[in-house]
Amino acid sequence: MLNYLTLILGCQLAGELAVRAAGVSVPGPVLGMVLLFCFLLARGSIPKDLATTADALLNHLSLLFVPAGVGVMLHFRLIGNDWLPIGVALILSTVLTIAITAWMMAWLGKGAGGND
Amino acid sequence: MTELGDIWVYLSASPLAHLTLTLAAFQFGAFIYARGKLNPMLNPVLIAVIIVVTVLLLTGTSYADYFDGAQFVHFLLGPATVALAIPLYRQFDKVRRSALAIIASILTGSATAIVSAISVGYLLGGSRDAIISLAPKSVTAPVAMGISEQLGGLPSLTAVLVIVTGILGAMIGPFVLNMIGVRNWAARGLAMGTASHGIGTARAFQVSELAGAFSGLAMGLNALATAILFPLIWGLFF
């Protein structure tokens, strides 16, 4: 377990360093995901303990957003001043983005995923 | 009384209290969510945030003090993002077969998110600060904050609006998808990840691993797409 946690952190660290060195605006962890994915491609299978470690992290993915979400308390006033444009823009834009992306993918990628 | 005071001083200085508060609030949210049969309206992040903010306001605790403890949970976001490579690899055959469809859908979704957020904010008279800060809302927090900062927005406001968008997407996304009649898990996941990044992805994983894998992929690709498209689209407006 521990060596795979080290591998995951190592991929993140390598991602952060590469992003900083190249000055691109992709987040380090996203690049780390690509690195880990390449490792899996090269290896051809997922080590059982790596799967356990990853599933443990991903099973509670939503918990990890709570501390950043609590930051809303810093901006009550700013959001209060502009609540109408902010609120309507967030809701309309989220609905439109979900509908258009799903509709495009369902139309272009017929048979890509099971209807189960 | 002094003893109680000492205990309070100890607790408010140690990360333990705020870490426990975060976990307990989330457990409560997750319990309600499970009791409600994963009804998207009972989003556990939203419930946890409301509880924690209420407790902090009642005890007069600042966000900075809270974050000193909660940062240990926050830190795990990075490794969790890296770990998305595993479900992605499990679904790689399906991803490879529809690579072009995926790229085209995410590019369209990314542009839709940016253009619609800017134009609605602009039409309703939002301040320039508010519009820049909300425009990159669909993309994962570190990218969104970077974009907002580059154009003179408020990165910390952007971080909050990104989380709100994630919660909104996780709450209303399933209804929107049912309404337009898209039942395909790959398409549903891709839409959730493009519009509402990691929180949408967390919701997608709870209902289907295939949807979760596509959602995680969409989150990563949309980070890339937005970083490229955003400056171009912003230039058209301002």
Architecture overview:
The complex is a heterodimer of chains A (116) and B (238). By secondary structure, chain A is mainly α. Chain A is built from six helices and no strands. Chain A folds into two domains: 60 residues; 36 residues. Helices cover 74% and strands 0% of the residues of chain A. In chain A, helix 1 crosses helix 2. The radius of gyration of chain A is 19 Å and the shape is extended. By secondary structure, chain B is mainly alpha-helical. Chain B has two domains: 75 residues, no CATH class; 162 residues, no CATH class. Chain B is built from 13 helices and no strands. The longest helix of chain B is centred in the last third of the chain and has 29 residues.
Q: What structural class do the secondary elements of chain B suggest?
A: mainly alpha
Q: Tell me, what's the shape of chain B?
A: globular
Gyration radius of chain A (Cα, Å) is: 19 Å
Q: List low-pLDDT spans of chain B.
A: none
Query: Helicity range of the residues of chain A?
Result: over 70%
Distance between the termini of chain A: 33 Å
